[in-house]
Design brief:
Radius of gyration: 27 Å
Bound molecules: adenosine-5'-triphosphate
Strand order of the largest sheet: 2-1-3-8-7-6
Distance between the termini: 43 Å
Largest sheet: 6 strands, mixed
Structural class: alpha/beta
Helix content: 40-55%
Length: about 400
Amino acid sequence: MKAEIIAVGTELLIGQITNTNARYISEKLNEYGVSVFFHTVVGDNNGRIKEVLHTALSRSDIVVITGGLGPTEDDLTKEAVCEYLDIRLEIDEDILSSIEEYFKNRNITMVQSNIKQAYVPAGSVVLYNQKGTAPGFFIDHNEKKIVILPGPPVEMEPMFDDYLKKYIAKEATVYSRFINIFGVGESIAEERILDLIHRQSGITLATYANFGQVTIRVTTIAENSAEGEKKLKSTIDELHTRFGNDIYTDEDKSLSEKVAELLCKNSKTICVAESCTGGLVSKMLTDRAGASKFFLGGIVAYSNFFKMIYLSIPGEVLEKHGAVSEAVCRSMAENAVRMTNADIGLSVTGIAGPGGSTAEKPVGTVYIGICSKGTTRVKKCSFNGDRNKIRNMAAAASLDMIRRELL
Ligand code: ATP
């Protein structure tokens, strides 16, 4: 089944907003095994909306359209689609009363133009909007499925989840699991599973990389999740054998969630001393609720002055080895433990660039230290990429070092 996404809105064309709706919908459709072949953006213009719809229906089975469902004059999507398909718009009394209710509950006077939103394409399935007033629609037309959703992501995303995941999941009956790996590059990971990729016995494997992490998507067609799980079991077991502890999770979890889970499970506390990551490791560790159980705090010591005052790094050590060094990284981790009595001290110091490099310490040189049970280990890493990528890789590698310490 081929899908295509049309985002309607002149703001998108002039670069005022980013088309995050297309990204969201594509990601979800791909998860369900529906291939998205085209993304189109079109302005608020009746003729051009019909033109792109004509092209989309000539090449795709599912067309998802977002935006242009509001009450104002330039909201034309529903009208253009109905004109193109030769369907009339008719008033839906339930929607009209829910719009009236919406305004009454918020003490806002409803204006005449809001009634426009109670008109629905005849014969369509109405998708109710819990977060706003514009409903969405599902139209089955000559074997093609057309889905129309409002533009604001806060409205569109839950509607897509509520109505379409169920519908598409049923259609596609595709079941996927995601195996997340850290510490093995994407090409090496792919090479290790080439035989499984080529075997293709009703099970598809694909790799994706993101900031040092590699995800292997394992997919099959199944009647339900229990059957899907059964069909994928031997492949997942095989991946565990091949990648061992490099797999940080085979569940729908991020690396930071996994580390937080391990810290909680092992009843360990942690203190973080960060330089080049500027608090990113602390942020990731505290992203989810419940972090107070294990996260004592973080010290962002960027300048040498801060490292001396707040992390007690001796001036001579900084002078002799430089802030980006094995010795300073070691002291940062040890002092984080000494000063807070945490079970684990984690430190990161490096050169995120673009400036600040030397011949011996090029951009991307990062030291990560971990002090635990009276022992300190420091790892030297060399990351490639821009400042953002290097900082994110350093933070992810720090989380992975904590994870391995806890295994
Ligand atoms: P409303 O009922 O709010 O008028 P609508 O369906 O008419 O909704 P638009 O008027 O097209 O939607 O867009 C409203 C807002 O939704 C935009 O200003 C923008 O903030 C957001 N939006 C619209 N389309 C997209 C998109 N493709 N990606 C991300 N945000 C979007």
